[in-house]
Amino acid sequence: MDSILQKYLPERAVESCLALIQEKGVYLKIVNDRVTRHGDYQKLSDGRHKITVNATLNRYRFLITLIHEIAHLVAFEKFGHRASIY
Fold it and tell me: How many CB atoms lie within 10 A of CB 79?
């Protein structure tokens, strides 16, 4: 996973992001470009947390999007489904 993240994140952010992904048990999926969104968070029926991020983002947009989606995960854990509604 570390070598994959190095392709998409700024070098100094890889270790911290990997630690967050592992701590939160995130299934990270890097997907083809979507016009309507940069990333997405879902709680799967088996209890895992899935985050998708577009592969075509520059390293800094990828970082911001990944952290944004992890924030959705944290809000979900803390407040439940109602926190995920915009």
Answer: 10
- 86 found inside a domain: no
Domain encompassing residue 15? 2-80
| Eight-state DSSP code of residue 86 | -
Query: pTM for this one?
Result: 0.89
According to the model, what pLDDT value does residue 82 have?
Answer: 56
- Which of the 8 DSSP states describes residue 45? T
Instruction: Please state, in angstroms and rounded to a whole number, the distance separating the CA atoms of residues 27 and 50.
Output: 5
Give the C-alpha separation, 79 to 60, whole Å.
28
Residue 35: what pLDDT? 86
Long-range pairs, 82-85, Cβ under 8 A, ≥24: 84/41
Is residue 85 included in any domain, yes or no?
no
